[in-house]
Amino acid sequence: MSRRDVIVHAAAPWRTQLMGVLAEAGWRPLALGEFTDLPGERRQDVHVGVVRLGRADDAEIDALDELMASRPEIEWVALVPTAALPNPRVGRFLRHRCFDFHTLPIDTPHFLATLGHAEGKARLPSGGAAGCEAEGCCGMIGHSPAMRDLYAAIRKASAVEAPVMISGESGTGKELVARAIHQLSPRRDGPFIAVNCAALPANLIQAELFGHEKGAFTGAYQRKIGRLEAAAGGTIFLDEIGDLPLEMQVTLLHVLQDKVIERLGSNREIRLDVRVIAASHVELEQAVADAHFRADLYYRINVIRLRTPALRDREEDVERLARAYLERFLPESRGGVRGFSRQALTVMANYEWPGNVRELINRVRQAVVLSENRLLTPRDLGLEKRVSSEGFMTLEEARSRAEHDTIRRALRRNQNNVAAAARQLGISRATLYRLLVRVSHAGAAVHPEFPHAVSMAGRAD
Ligand SMILES: Nc1ncnc2c1ncn2[C@@H]1O[C@H](COP(=O)(O)OP(=O)(O)OP(=O)(O)O)[C@@H](O)[C@H]1O
């Protein structure tokens, strides 16, 4: 049997030992550098990685987080010193980033079995690059249990022809889901036509959906193909279907039942071969109960039901989404933005995101374009109020914030004179410079001499 590749990320004394164990068991271990040097198509053959935590401190977890976020297609198995397990950051890291973990010393047969399972899972069509679960598939990002369930539902829905109803809050990706179903379905080579029913003026809806012949009404100077006809052979996505006027609901129901349409001004029937996917951000059951939506149309389109989860219910996806969109917008950065400060990541993970992914995209984009910090701060994201108001800072974050505030006040009192501020703080000038570098690396410069970030010396909190 051919050897399977596995990335090994461990400090030198353990790396050799780990590579030996893996090679003996029939794997082809690759140090991280060897993996990175592989040609692109060879890299896609690598599905699993092993990471051996050393100090398990913040710096190490930050570096591993970064590595794993940049390789979401890899399933990782972690080897962890038992003493590190009570550390909440380590716990979060293991839960969100790793397929599984083992404590040290290694129980070799058990560990190798886990690695085999991780590889099996990564290769599954549902879990590997070929399936909809892969990062970037159909533009969808997220590995939370809620998103995995959604991917599974998308795959099932794409295999059949039945109408689909997608519900979910605004900005949760309903259109993206509709596109994914289309792209994975046998109709993928046909058109995908999206219609926002809420955005169409009531007097134009019929002409937009069904098209019209020349002279059908005043202003109809030429024949126009409607959106339903344009979607022939493909999929039509009727977004905010709850906003369709009642009389249009009747017409649409007939189209779905008879699979024929007539353009306005014509009585020639045109056979339709279109799959319908509808979406609504309001619960249609209530609209039916209130007689704003026809029950017969509701049952017609509500055959397969999917729900896009709110972002606040999948906290573990927030960082992934934020990093992916940061990467996308980096070319728009004038400064040297490189990532998010840890405080920004904590704040984002705890924020409720009422506008869901759309809001996250907008905040990240605005921060990338406007910030001059290397690491984006909660303030850059417009989330600075969250830092103090919700009491979820870790002790370490609270300490570093207090340190930062004290330094900033001292500088302000001394008109940014570092020597005078240092004297007042009871530390040496060199120590103050060192602290200034550290806080500016954490995403908030407190002194104009430190170009990484905007000086906060003159800002009111
Ligand atoms: N899981 C995801 N991964 C990556 N991007 C996403 C994801 N979900 C949503 N987005 C992005 O968020 C934005 C909003 O998504 P979309 O328009 O599909 O939401 P929606 O639920 O249809 O919103 P609305 O109800 O307001 O029409 C889009 O730019 C989309 O690409």
UniProtKB/TrEMBL annotation:
This is Sigma-54 dependent transcriptional regulator. The keyword Nucleotide-binding applies. InterPro entries: AAA+_ATPase, AAA_lid_NorR, CheY-like_superfamily, Homeodomain-like_sf, HTH_Fis, P-loop_NTPase, Sigma_54_int, Sigma_54_int_dom_ATP-bd_1. Keywords: ATP-binding, DNA-binding, Nucleotide-binding, Transcription, Transcription regulation. PANTHER family: TRANSCRIPTIONAL REGULATOR-RELATED, TRANSCRIPTIONAL REGULATORY PROTEIN. Gene3D superfamilies: 1.10.8.60, Homeodomain-like (1.10.10.60), P-loop containing nucleotide triphosphate hydrolases (3.40.50.300). Residues 140-369 form the Sigma-54 factor interaction domain. Pfam families: AAA_lid_14, HTH_8, Sigma54_activat, VpsR.
